[in-house]
Write a structure and sequence with these properties.
With about 350 residues, the chain is mainly α. It has helices at about 10, 35-50, 65-75, 85-100, 100-120, 140-150, 165-175, 180-205, 210-220, 225-245, 255-270, 295-300, 305-315, 320-340; strands at about 1-5, 25-30, 55-60, 80-85.
Amino acid sequence: MFVVLRVKLDIFLQREGAITLKDCECIGVKISDKMTKERVVKDLEEIFDKAGEPVAIIKDNGSSLNSGIRIYNTEHNNDIETIDDITHVVANGLKKQFEKTKQYKRYMIMLREGATKLRQTDLAFLIPPKLRNKGRFQAISKLNSWSKKIIEQKIFSKRGRAKKGSLLERLRGAFKNFKSLESFIQNFIKTTNVSNRIMKILKNKGLNIATYHQSMNILQKLPKNSKTRKTIRVWLENHIKIQKKLAPNPLPISSDIIESLFGKFKYTLERSPQSDINRATLLIPLFCGNLDKERLSSILKDTKHKELKQWESENIPYTIRKERLEFFNKYIQKMEITVSA
């Protein structure tokens, strides 16, 4: 699913805080079986032809999206600025710094083994957060919080043999290598804390010359050879140029609101007895903006069932549910013909 939101900057700039769905207007919803750069170009053309071209596009680091926007700009001789979402940038920096190191791999193995030992026990509440393989470093803050709490309690720093059967002995048995990895874990916590502080400032205040210098100062807390520091510094230097070029106002730098929108849509969809992509997709624009009862009543009054059915047939590709229904309908019809013959 390809969704394009337009940020109402006048509303966003009136207050301090991250972009909310009330600050946005949904100007495009496209559904396809596969996301390709060619599909992105086609969808952007259709959406921008109706809604007008933007000043800038905030995006994640998806290869199809990156290529599609680049091709669109080239084919239309445009100079639409692209803003890389800060969450994905930070995640990439952390990934470059930690993922291939021996200490990080040992830490992940230790956490998996420890979780297995504590699961289904009275200490299950101390299990570290489970990180998905895809987008692991985007959710790494959860692991940072868990690691920080364990370090602060000094559970593994106490000397001497633990009493047999005690809480300390059981935890040491579950996370055997924690003490030897403590230096790495401290560095991991420090790096993610610095990254989180910078993201909090930029997501709530946007990027301008003041938040740029504030972020740069915080970044100094990381070593010069830190890959995370280098990644964020390059991003800051490139995007402050975009901010100066576009306007004196703070530059929105996060696409988190898209994740929030999809989360809200999935939650609503799961409550349906038939969880399937269909005309329910049209709920997405209704999650944006600030619709009052009068506006909603007008929408419901002016929307015809026939038009909804036509939109669905033209825009929703064949889903598994549709294929299943069609198969059984054809199969039953064939059986009836065979029997009657």
